[in-house]
């Protein structure tokens, strides 16, 4: 069943890419896709204790070598981290009691069509920028409607700041200054079905919330039903504006809030980075 779901999803993307339609409009008659025709791009940072920025209050990321080939015949590290260290995905129960946790999610929840919204210019001018409904509508006028149940990814430029104090961008009072979604924009994405039941948001910052909003209202809205958030994404230059999918893979912990993840952009034939 899971193989059929994956194959159907990929065939839909392939058909949409050939015809110029969105993935939402692709039909079951789309040509089958050969898996070796897909291109994968990594959207994950490498976790390194020397460079990994952690959200204020989260445990430090630590690696300890506990076995070496000369001494033990094999090499192994002990890893200490929060579930949301580095590039990661979050489950609805991360912010909402009673909502699905990592082991309640379906495989297809972690494989979704994706669009990329480039807000680097706005974010350079204002690190507290909140993406608006007008921004999303302007993007759709240029690129077409966001597919239903998609992951809407913000490219703020923060991926280039990773591993430096400019990434958390905290002020003297410890307040984060990072761009994100405005509350009305996320409500619009939910109400119109664009992030639907099992879509979500993505960002190269710590969170879909504007950093100064310590109520986490955007996160509480996104993290419901089977929606996810992909956070601390890297290499967003390699993710096309539209036409790609995202695939999140990581350990599924019992009652997990999500997990540190290797997140891939999946590019079907004919879809290329900008």
From TrEMBL:
GO biological process: L-tryptophan catabolic process to kynurenine
Annotated keywords: Signal
Coiled coil: none
Gene3D superfamilies, A to Z: Putative cyclase
Signal peptide: 1-25
Pfam families hit by this protein: Cyclase
GO molecular function: arylformamidase activity
PANTHER family named among the record's database cross-references: CYCLASE-LIKE PROTEIN 2
Protein name (Swiss-Prot/TrEMBL): Cyclase family protein
Organism: Amycolatopsis iheyensis
Lineage, highest ranks first: Bacteria, Bacillati, Actinomycetota, Actinomycetes, Pseudonocardiales
